[in-house]
Structure formats: structure tokens, C-alpha cells
Amino acid sequence: MAKCAVCEKGAYFGNNVSHSHRRSNKMWKSNVKSVRVKTAAGGAQKMYVCTSCLRSGKVERA
């Protein structure tokens, strides 16, 4: 599973709890996209970035 290159957000785990309180495993996946990003050297690099980092402007697209 991919992790965000900026904030390290990735998948996390917990339990689904039914009405009868039986528990089964659950996995939440973060919304991570593969994006071309501008680097400090002026080039472009492809990396995984979550959509919350894209929206907040922490990363500039190439």
C-alpha cells in the first residue's frame, strides 16, 4: 500500500462492529494519488501524495 510522501499517511486498521457486536477486521485506505511534482532543482518527480496535501498546497504539481 502506498504512503503519502509528504505527511506519511497510509492505510490503518481497526474493527468492523456489527449490530450484534461481532467484530471483523477492517482496513481504511487513504486517498493517495500518483502525481508529478516539482522538485527544488527545477525538475519533476513522480511521487505518491494524498489528496489532503494536494488541496492544502503542500505540494506543487509539475
TrEMBL record:
Gene3D superfamilies: Ribosomal protein L28/L24. GO terms for cellular component: ribonucleoprotein complex; ribosome. GO terms for biological process: translation. Keywords: Ribonucleoprotein, Ribosomal protein. The keyword Ribonucleoprotein applies. The keyword Zinc does not apply. Pfam families: Ribosomal_L28 (PF00830). One of its GO terms (molecular function) is structural constituent of ribosome. Belongs to the bacterial ribosomal protein bL28 family. NCBIfam families: L28. This is Large ribosomal subunit protein bL28.
